[in-house]
Design goal:
By secondary structure, the chain is α/β, with parallel strands linked by helices. The chain contains eight helices and ten strands. The chain has helices at 3-27, 48-63, 84-89, 122-136, 166-169, 179-186, 204-207, 216-222; strands spanning 35-41, 68-73, 95-99, 146-149, 155-159, 173-175, 190-192, 212-215, 230-232, 241-244. It has a five-stranded mixed β-sheet with strand order 2-1-3-10-4. Helix 2 links the parallel strand 1 (35-41) and strand 2 (68-73).
C-alpha cells in the first residue's frame, strides 16, 4: 500500500470521526431554558378579552411543556391602558394589549383606523387593521413586535332617551375616546373620556350618565348593568385594540 493511499484512508477516518463527534454533540442537549413573561392588559378579569388572554397564556405554557410561562396582569394593574405601549417599550411588561385611541397623537397613522369609514363587522375591520400594519410598517410601532391587531363590530349609542337626529344628540354626554371624541364633538355631543373597564364599577344610574358609544362585545364582556332603554347602532365599527411584545 502506497503512502498516498494511507494518507487518503487516514483523512477519511478523521472526517468520519469528526462527523460522528458533531452528531454526538447535537444529541447532547443542555438544560432547557425557561422564560417567565408578563402580560399587561387593561380589561378586567371577567371580561371576555381578559379570559381569552389568560387561556392563550395557559395554552402557550402547555404547548411548551412549561418552559414559557406568561403571567397576566388584568385591569391595568401593571400599566394603565394609556401607558401600556410605553410600558412594553421600557420593559415594565413583556407583552401588552391596549387601544390606539387611548393615546391620541402617539399613533398618527393608525389613528386613521378610527375614522368612520363604514366597517360592516369586526372581521373586516380586523383584516383592514392588520393589512395596514403589514403594508405600511408604521414607524410609530418601532421598538416592539406587533403580534396582532384586532377590532370588534359596530358600536352602539346607549342612552336613556331616543337619539334619532342630530338635534337629539346636541349637548348629550357621550363616552368617547381618541378620534371618536372629535367626531362626537363635531356632531354636537359632549364627549367624555372614560376607559371601558370603569363602566363595570359604575351604578346603573351613573353608567347611563353619560351614555356610551360602545360595542355589544364591550357590554357583554364587562357585564355592565345599564339602565339605558335606547340603543342606536352607528354605521361602522369602532377602533381596534392591539397586542404587542
Amino acid at each position: 500500500m502506497t503512502l498516498k493511499t494511507w494518507i487518503r484512508i487516514a483523512g477519511m477516518l478523521l472526517l468520519t470521526l469528526a462527523g460522528a463527534a458533531v452528531l454526538n454533540g447535537c444529541k447532547q442537549e443542555g438544560p432547557a431554558q425557561h422564560f417567565e413573561l408578563s402580560y399587561s392588559i387593561f380589561f378586567p378579569p371577567t371580561h371576555v378579552q381578559c379570559i381569552a388572554a389568560t387561556n392563550w397564556a395557559q395554552d402557550i405554557e402547555k404547548r411548551t411543556g412549561g418552559r414559557i410561562k406568561i403571567k397576566v396582569y388584568p385591569a391595568g394593574s401593571l400599566t394603565k391602558a394609556d401607558q401600556c405601549f410605553e410600558g412594553v417599550v421600557n420593559g415594565i411588561s413583556d407583552i401588552g394589549m391596549s387601544c390606539f385611541a387611548y393615546t391620541p397623537g402617539r399613533f398618527p397613522l393608525l389613528e386613521g383606523l378610527d375614522l368612520p369609514v363604514g366597517y360592516p363587522n369586526g372581521a373586516v375591520a380586523t383584516r383592514i387593521a392588520n393589512d395596514m400594519v403589514r403594508k405600511y410598517k408604521p414607524q410609530e410601532l418601532g421598538g416592539v413586535e406587533v403580534l396582532y391587531v384586532h377590532a370588534h363590530g359596530p358600536g352602539i349609542l346607549a342612552s336613556k332617551k331616543p337619539v334619532k337626529s342630530l338635534e337629539d344628540l346636541k349637548g348629550l354626554k357621550v363616552r368617547a375616546t381618541g378620534l371618536s371624541k372629535s367626531i362626537a364633538d363635531k356632531l354636537g355631543a359632549t364627549p367624555v373620556a372614560m376607559p371601558s373597564r370603569r363602566l363595570t364599577r359604575l351604578s346603573p344610574r351613573a353608567w347611563s350618565r353619560p351614555p356610551s358609544a360602545r360595542s355589544r362585545r364591550s357590554k357583554a364582556g364587562s357585564r355592565a348593568r345599564p339602565s339605558n332603554t335606547w340603543w342606536t347602532p352607528p354605521p361602522s365599527a369602532t377602533p381596534p385594540p392591539c397586542l404587542w411584545s
